[in-house]
Design a protein that fits this description.
Structural class of chain B: mainly alpha
Helix content of chain A: 25-40%
Distance between the termini of chain B: 32 Å
Radius of gyration of chain A: 26 Å
Number of helices of chain A: 18
Number of domains of chain B: 1
Oligomer: heterodimer
Strand order of the largest sheet of chain A: 21-8-7-22-1-23-34-2-35
Largest sheet of chain B: none
Distance between the termini of chain A: 40 Å
Number of helices of chain B: 3
Number of strands of chain A: 35
Strand content of chain A: 25-35%
Helix content of chain B: 55-70%
Shape of chain B: elongated
Chain lengths: 693, 63
């Protein structure tokens, strides 16, 4: 009995023993020998205890499903699929499978969250709560003391202790890693009750929580440099210069070959944290348009305009430490200038530098079974397209390749779904609409001096491909399955940017220091006289006493101030287009509730479709024109009035009545599996017609 | 995420349980964690500005 207790007590260690080394300053290195020893030991323990665990799981599993109304639930998430576009293409006879779902079951718009931003909406999807209860209000959140931006959903910190040794710094333990989304994901409730749950790439699941569900993380998983995805661009043409979202590196020509380096993560083992670099060489191989890449002791063929497969690159930290990543190379030009693009270096799912799945070995299992795949949160490189480092064709190729990887995972998961829940989110729908919706709007500023015809059917193609995916899902999923196809928000063009900080400055709510330049991240803002500021995509923060480090607005004044700003903003006219830019300004206190409302922007700005916070406003820049044309390839968006950008909801079962919101899905799935709905959930169980078992 | 245990007065925990539900928390643990974090936030300094900006690099929605 004592021996059994000892063995069971070791189970929790299985996860923790997983060694990782991660990006940024937060690295931890465990010696390979120790890891090998622990892995071997745990493998033995696992093997010995397997019969017992099998019996326990079987007994528990049978009981877990006793009140279930269905055998399986599949949630197919298509980020950003728009109800208006879907309805339009459906009425043109382009989407037979969606039409079949609508006729057989249900189709309706799915109300999104306030604000209508993916991390917010997917957090409400997971928890069945409004943002005031899950604490995610935007991609960014201000640090209350410094007003600097922080990632709202994940804390990736430093290791608590390091050992100094000359120029070296040996990290001890793991870096602080924490998911900042609060409340409870509904699949954890199911999994705790013994109901199988497989969750693939649902946004805001990084870092993965301790859970009995099988989960692969998504949005906000960093690359191995610790950023949200930085490309590298090589050119012998120095004039191409600086890029947002990536780095340009020069190339040296030596003996006819092009030589440079691939920048990796900062070295966690040195005090200076200097960047680890991998040198490489590209040589012509005598055939036109072809070359050979030599990197990390491997050779890879290159062909003009074609991506390589995923290339595994290993960055050595010294003392036996290694950080492996995956990237793809795209040779753009050999002459007259040499040009090559490299995708952000993704965390290698086979040997992840940071945990990206639950259990930790799940990503390794997937990589062994499916081959290498993109792990970066926002894996499709929209900035490389904005910066014209890659073109539309390259971007589409990259996006559809990632989509194909995920489809393989999805259909494999369906095959293995005997009973329980499978939820997956595909991102191509979001990224392609962001970057191609301009083709549907001739007057879009991004169309000026740009090709407007070649890709005008790309949005239609996207919806047709989604329809095909739905069709194959219906074929494979088997009987006694509830299928929900849903999106977190819709899409509209983003033609004009509004700089809210400029507006606040012009109206006296934001004050600059005498010599303040109003640059990025509130450079030169005089906080002791500033009453309100805008950061991120959602809206405006009041500089509150007791919340912000230099807050000046007392609670009673805040209420009056919010009303005053909202009233004025709702009449804001765009002089160039002679129209109002904002539909409505929502007071957070009225559109959300819960313990975290005080962390939300005080005002959610509901832009009229066509408008969004300007690129500069999002990053706290003040000195820019109040209105600017959006000329980037990223010409579509949804960070607008949430009422104008609902998502979609299709189901193969009839739903009797009622307006649906994204918060309704969690309680509905719990109900389908016969589980009690927690009182904190805001969503309602959908009135679904199910032939109960 | 690693966890640790701390001892709290039983009455306090009972009260916390009651008000966690009233406030809309999913659990008493979440309530207590949030309360402590809010207090710590008042004392904690921000991270290095350049490091913070670097971490956001590449996020499609921001330039």
């Amino acid at each position: 009995m004592l021996a059994l207790f000892f063995i069971l007590a070791l189970f929790p260690l299985a996860d923790r023993a997983f060694a990782y080394i991660g990006p940024g300053a937060g690295f931890a290195v465990l010696s390979s020998f120790f890891m090998l020893f622990v892995a071997f030991f745990l493998a033995i323990v696992n093997l010995i205890s397997w019969p017992l665990r099998y019996l326990w799981k079987r007994a528990r599993g049978k009981n877990a499903y006793k009140n279930a109304k269905v055998k399986r639930v599949i949630i197919l998430g298509l980020d950003g699929l728009d109800p208006e576009l879907t309805g339009g293409f459906m009425s043109q006879g382009e989407l037979p499978n969606f039409k079949r779902l609508r006729e057989q079951g249900h189709f309706a718009p799915l109300a999104t969250t306030f604000p209508s931003i993916s991390p917010v909406a997917w957090s409400s999807f997971q928890t069945g709560t409004n943002p005031g209860k899950h604490n995610i209000f935007d991609f960014l959140t201000p640090h209350w003391k410094s007003y600097l931006p922080e990632l709202s959903s994940a804390l990736i910190g430093n290791v608590a202790r390091v050992i100094h040794f000359g120029k070296y710094e040996i990290p001890v333990g793991k870096p602080a890693l924490k998911l900042l989304r609060r409340s409870v994901a509904f699949w954890n409730i199911l999994a705790d009750k013994g109901i199988f749950a497989n969750i693939l790439r649902v946004p805001i699941t990084f870092p993965p929580e301790k859970s009995k569900a099988l989960l692969l993380s998504a949005m906000c998983v960093p690359d191995i440099r610790g950023t949200q995805g930085s490309f590298t661009f090589y050119s012998t043409n120095q004039q191409r210069g600086q890029h947002t979202g990536g780095t340009q590196i020069s190339v040296e020509k030596k003996n006819g070959a092009f030589c440079s380096y691939l920048p990796g993560p900062p070295n966690p083992m040195t005090k200076a944290h200097d960047q680890i670099r991998l040198s490489f060489k590209v040589s012509r191989n005598g055939k036109p348009g072809q070359a050979v890449l030599e990197i990390d002791r491997q050779k890879h063929p290159l062909e003009l305009g074609k991506y390589t497969d995923w290339v595994k690159v290993t960055f050595r930290t010294g003392a036996g430490g290694k950080i492996t990543g995956l990237c793809r190379f795209l040779l753009k030009q050999l002459e007259p200038e040499f040009e090559m693009y490299v995708t952000p270096i993704n965390i290698d799912p086979e040997k992840p530098a940071l945990p990206i799945s639950t259990p930790a070995y799940y990503s390794t299992y997937l990589a062994k079974k499916m081959g290498p795949f993109a792990t970066l949160g926002l894996a499709e490189d929209t900035w490389a397209l904005n910066e014209r480092v890659i073109d539309e064709k390259d971007f589409l190729q990259q996006t559809w390749d990632i989509h194909a990887e995920r489809e393989r995972m999805f259909f494999d998961a369906i095959e293995n779904l005997d009973q329980g829940l499978l939820a997956i989110v595909f991102d191509a729908t979001d990224r392609i609409q962001h970057t191609f919706i301009r083709y549907l709007h001739e007057d879009h500023p991004a169309n000026r001096d740009r090709e407007k015809v070649l890709y005008k059917d790309e949005i239609r193609n996207l919806y047709k491909k989604c329809d095909d995916l739905v069709g194959r899902t219906l074929e494979k999923m088997g009987d006694d399955t509830v299928l929900m196809v849903m999106s977190d928000h819709g899409f509209k063009p983003f033609k004009r940017g509004v700089n809210l900080n400029r507006w606040l400055y012009d109206n006296g709510y934001l004050v600059l220091q005498k010599d303040g330049n109003g640059g990025e991240w509130f450079e030169g803002v005089e906080w002791s006289q500033t009453k309100a500021y805008a950061l991120g995509l959602a809206g405006i923060f009041i500089n509150r006493k007791g919340r912000e480090g230099k807050g000046i607005v007392a609670p009673e004044e805040a209420v009056r101030l919010k009303n005053e700003i909202a009233e004025k903003l709702e009449t804001l006219r765009d002089p160039e287009r002679a129209e109002n830019a904002i539909n409505k300004v929502y007071d957070s206190a009225t559109v959300m509730n819960g313990p975290y409302v005080k962390n939300a922007p005080d005002l959610i700005v509901g832009y009229k479709p066509g408008y969004r916070a300007s690129w500069a406003s999002v990053t706290g820049t003040v000195m820019e024109d109040l209105f600017t044309d959006n000329t980037k390839a990223w010409g579509g968006d949804h960070c607008m009035d949430p009422k104008t950008v609902p998502g979609i909801f299709f189901c193969n079962k009839k739903i009797r009545e009622g307006d649906l919101t994204i918060m309704d899905i969690a309680p509905t799935v719990l109900d389908l599996f016969g589980q009690k709905i927690p009182s904190y959930m805001d969503g309602k169980v959908m009135a679904m017609s199910i032939d109960e078992k | 995420m690693a966890t640790a245990k701390i001892k709290l007065d039983k009455d306090l925990v009972e009260k916390a349980k009651k008000y966690a539900e009233v406030a809309g928390y999913a659990s008493v643990e979440e309530f207590i964690s949030h309360t402590l974090e809010s207090a710590i936030m008042q004392l904690e300094e921000a991270g290095d500005a350049e490091e913070l900006k670097e971490k956001l690099k590449g996020l499609g929605y921001i330039a």
